Each structure stands twice: as C-alpha cells, then as structure tokens.
Amino acid sequence: KEMALRLKDRDKALEKTQSSHFLALESVHRQLRHLQEDLLAQSLAEQTRLQAEWQRQLQVVEEAASAREHKLQEQLRQRSQDAKERGQEIAQVRRQLAQAEAKLSQGAVLLEEHCTKLAGLQEMENLKAHALEKALREGEEKDRLLQHLQAHWATARKHVSEGQSHFLLPPI
C-alpha cells in the first residue's frame, strides 16, 4: 500500500511537473507565436514599405522616361520640321540654279551669236579699213600726180605765155 501511495504521490508529482512543464512549454509556444506574429508583422510592414519605395522609384523612373520620350519626340518633330524646311530650301535653290543655268545657256548662245556677228563686223571693218587705206593711198598718189601735173602745167603755161614751148604735158 505504501508503495502504491508513493507511486501515486510520484505520479501526482510527475503530473504536477509535467503540468508545469506543459504550462511552461505552452507559454514558450505562445511567446514563440507572438514573436512569429511580431516578426511577420515587421516583415509585412518592411515589405509594404519596400513595395511603396519601389513603387515611388518606379513612378519617378516612369516619369523621367516619359519626360525623356516627350523631349525626344519634340526633338524628332523639330528635326523633321528642320529637314522639311531644308528640303524646301534645297528645292528652291535647285529651281533657281536650273533657271540660272538656263539663262546662262541662253546667254552663251547669244554670246556665241554676238561673237560671230562681231567677228563678221570686225572682218568688214578690216576690209573697210583696208579699202579706205587703199583709197587714201590712191588719193594721195592722185594728189601727188595732180600736184605734179599742176606744177608742170603752171610751168608750161608760163613758158607758153613767154612763147617757149608748145608741149603742155610732162615728158614720159
């Protein structure tokens, strides 16, 4: 009986010890659960903070990309407008060049015609000058001959009036 009592006491003590261990273990489990919940809450808060930060950074990057894209589109529009204007200016210059080349070609044809006419006129001028020189020489020769004849005639008349000779013409 005593043994049964001892065993009973021991079982009670063991039960008490187990109960206190169970309570301690349950307390540790509760603390662990609270710790896990706190860590999970901190982790979720950190994750939410990081997600908000990433979202903010993503928005900044998207805004910068949008601004850059807008700037590039504006530059492209401006470059396209400049290229269009330059193309129009080049077309205008080409038209002016074509007109100038046409005028130059016409001028060259007219110049060639005028050069031909001028050469003809110069040839006529040379012929005229040569004819005038020839006529002048012939006139001078005739003047000399006439002066010579007049001198001879005056001399012959003087002699005829003095009664010396009947020949009025100079000897050949």
Tertiary shape: rod-shaped
What is the SS-derived class?
A: mainly alpha
End-to-end distance:
211 Å
Please give the share of residues in helix.
over 70%
Mean pLDDT: 87
Residue windows where pLDDT falls under 50 for at least 5 positions: none
Question: Helix-strand pattern, N to C?
Answer: H
- Beta-strand portion reads under 5%
Rg for CA atoms: 69 Å
Keywords: Coiled coil
What does this molecule look like?
With 172 residues, the protein is mostly helical. The chain is 93% helix and 0% strand. It is built from one helix and no strands. The longest helix is centred in the middle third of the chain and has 160 residues, at 2-161. The protein is rod-shaped and about 225 Å long.
What is the secondary structure topology, with strand pairs?
Layout: H1 2-161
Question: What's this, in brief?
Answer:
Keywords: Coiled coil. The protein is mostly helical.
Structure characteristics:
single chain, 172 residues, 1 helix, rod-shaped
